[in-house]
Design a protein that fits this description.
CATH topology of the largest domain: Serine Threonine Protein Phosphatase 5, Tetratricopeptide repeat
Shape: globular
Distance between the termini: 60 Å
Radius of gyration: 23 Å
Number of strands: 7
Bound molecules: flavin-adenine dinucleotide, ligand DLZ, iron/sulfur cluster
Number of domains: 3
Strand order of the largest sheet: 3-2-1-4-5
CATH class of the largest domain: Mainly Alpha
Largest sheet: 5 strands, parallel
CATH architecture of the largest domain: Alpha Horseshoe
Length: about 500
């Protein structure tokens, strides 16, 4: 009896628990390129190309490892272009009696697979389980990442010494907020030339999705495990040592800085979180990276990545509909075109369009901060983030956007909204030096829009946010402001919003 083992685009790991159960002699691994996944939402061209090429390369690896692989290509004339349609067709084709899969990365896909009677296995590529997170969250009013992280670190013995955190403290974030000094050499990112398989996919994407957002070429991402491992090695050797110091910095024309650029590989399965953490810890122990860098990097993966996944599965499906601040404004056109005089936003959209990548602070404090302050509709903002970044899958994108950026979950993830005026962007970047607006001005036609929007945001949400102890100082300052000054700021904010 043949059984069907669907392997989805974000499950490109030979160690997948479902694959371990497959009988190579009689079971069939099914991989499906389907249009529905590319067009709802309409993903960035580079993201589609990356994933389809990585899938095609992974199918070769599976065959080399002895699996029977049934691979449906996007332009197969019989392709029904949906997961459910392709699984049904493959069941008939192979006379398959059962479906076994690894837990997928999206709630709707899990529901679809369950609806087809599939057996779903826990995804062992994560370092904690959904049940671990649910047990930890039980009875807690607030779910702070820091405490989940500490527990995981201690349990797994990561950066620990005699039962205590290495260096005597869990978190070195206060050392990780430096702006970039002038003259610092930034190493180029890992890059590969596309092989014939990738070139075929690039041509396919150009043909099938010409109107999607984003630049398809140049295409230099790795598409195999070997390439992804090389990218990880290059990060550890060339950038990790400065990752901590400049984690929050931004510089015009420098999209990659000292970040790792591995989330796209981790999230589709070409890299595993445990090996990235082990590589960073080994670099620290060998004296090749300082503790604030290694701990900072490890916390992103062992802490944030595991935490947002736990939160997603605990709170779905309701999490996607949350809108605690009642935000309803449509997404401004400049999120697609980059055509705005706000230089920080223009730069971040342009880099997103070119690379299907922006680093964390660009996503959070520029693109996200504007969405928060302007009261953009969480559904529209989530859709944008999900489609523009090559590393975006709903389990990781949604908590970051609805929880971290928009405070749409009412403070479940973040202890306060990450709202900031232009001064923060000016401190951490050189964007303001190249901007038509003046970051020091609060009102008037040349005033940086972030300034008025910030105060307007606080005033607008006074009833909901003023009791938050972490906003006490901000509300104290708002309270001290002369009524005419606040009125002028709010009028300026009104103009900015009306112009959107
Ligand atoms: P680095 O800065 O080098 O960090 C190392 C790794 O840590 C990343 O590769 C990633 O795996 C992990 N990591 C870091 N921060 C987070 C986080 N907040 N949540 C989960 N993992 C994290 N990350 C995604 O992987 N997919 C997304 O769709 C995504 N959407 C985001 C949306 C918003 C609004 C924000 C603020 C953050 C989002 N992040 C997302 C988190 C983070 O911005 C990206 O993981 C990071 O920018 C990817 O680049 P990098 O690989 O160079 O990461
Ligand atoms: C994002 C994406 C795209 C563009 N295309 C495919 C595809 O053709 N086949 C596939 O298996 N997965 C694709 N994905 C990823 C899925 O949309 C989805 O995010 C994951 O399968 C997680 O459930
Ligand atoms: Fe952005 Fe304001 Fe700075 Fe211009 S002045 S780059 S709008 S923060």
């Amino acid at each position: 009896m043949t059984r069907l083992f669907p392997v989805l685009g974000d499950q490109l790991s030979l160690g997948l628990p479902s694959l371990a159960m497959a009988d190579k002699a009689r079971d069939v691994v099914l991989m499906m390129e389907v249009r529905a996944e590319a067009i709802t939402p309409r993903h960035h061209k580079k993201k589609i190309a990356f994933l389809l090429s990585a899938m095609r390369h992974f199918a070769q690896e599976l065959r080399a490892a002895g699996y029977k692989v049934d691979y449906v290509t996007l332009d197969d004339p019989d392709n029904t272009q949906s997961f459910a349609g392709e699984i049904a067709r493959a069941q008939t084709r192979h006379g398959a009696t059962g479906i076994i899969a690894t837990w997928p990365g999206e709630y709707r896909v899990a529901e679809m697979l369950r609806g087809l009677g599939a057996e779903l296995l826990e995804d062992t590529r994560f370092l904690s389980t959904r049940a671990d997170f649910a047990a930890w969250a039980e009875g807690r009013k607030q779910l702070r990442m820091e405490f989940f992280y500490r527990q995981l670190r201690a349990r797994r013995g990561v950066l620990m010494r005699d039962g205590e955190p290495e260096g005597g403290q869990w978190n070195f974030d206060t050392e990780n907020r430096k702006p970039l000094p002038p003259g610092l050499t930034i190493p180029p990112p890992y890059a590969e030339l596309p092989d014939a398989l990738t070139e075929a996919v690039l041509a396919l994407v150009e043909r099938q999705f010409p109107d999607h957002f984003g630049d398809l070429r140049p295409f230099a991402y790795a598409v195999t495990r070997v390439g992804a491992l090389a990218a990880l090695r290059q990060f550890i050797a060339q950038r990790l040592s400065r990752f901590g110091d400049y984690q929050d910095a931004m510089r015009q024309g420098e999209p990659w800085l000292f970040h790792s650029h591995i989330a796209l590989y981790l999230n589709c399965g070409l890299l595993l979180p445990g090996e990235c953490i082990a590589a960073a810890e080994a670099a620290y122990r060998a004296g090749a990276a300082p503790l604030n860098a290694a701990e900072g990097f490890i916390r992103q993966i062992l802490g944030w990545r595991e935490y947002v996944r736990g939160l997603y599965w605990l709170k779905m499906p309701g999490y996607a509909a949350q809108n605690a601040l009642g935000a309803t404004r449509p997404l401004p056109e400049f999120y697609w075109t980059g055509e705005t005089e706000m230089n920080c936003l223009r730069q971040c959209v342009a880099e997103t369009r070119a690379n299907a990548y922006a680093h964390h602070i660009q996503r959070l404090m520029v693109l996200g901060n504007f969405a928060l302050l302007a009261g953009l509709d969480p559904r529209a903002v989530n859709e944008w983030y999900l489609l523009v970044y090559a590393d975006a899958y709903e389990w990781v994108e949604l908590p970051n956007v609805s929880g971290m950026v928009l405070f749409a979950d009412g403070g479940l993830l973040a202890s306060k909204p990450y709202a900031a005026g232009g001064a923060y962007i000016n401190r951490m970047s050189d964007y303001c030096r190249h901007c038509r607006y003046d970051v020091t001005q609060k009102t008037g036609p040349r005033a940086c829009p972030f300034n008025a929007l910030y105060w307007d945001f606080l005033a607008r949400h006074r009833d909901t946010l003023a009791r938050n102890p972490r906003l006490a100082l901000a509300y104290k300052n708002l309270g001290r402001m002369a009524p005419e000054a606040l009125a002028a700021l709010r009028a300026r904010a009104g103009e900015v919003l009306a112009a959107l």
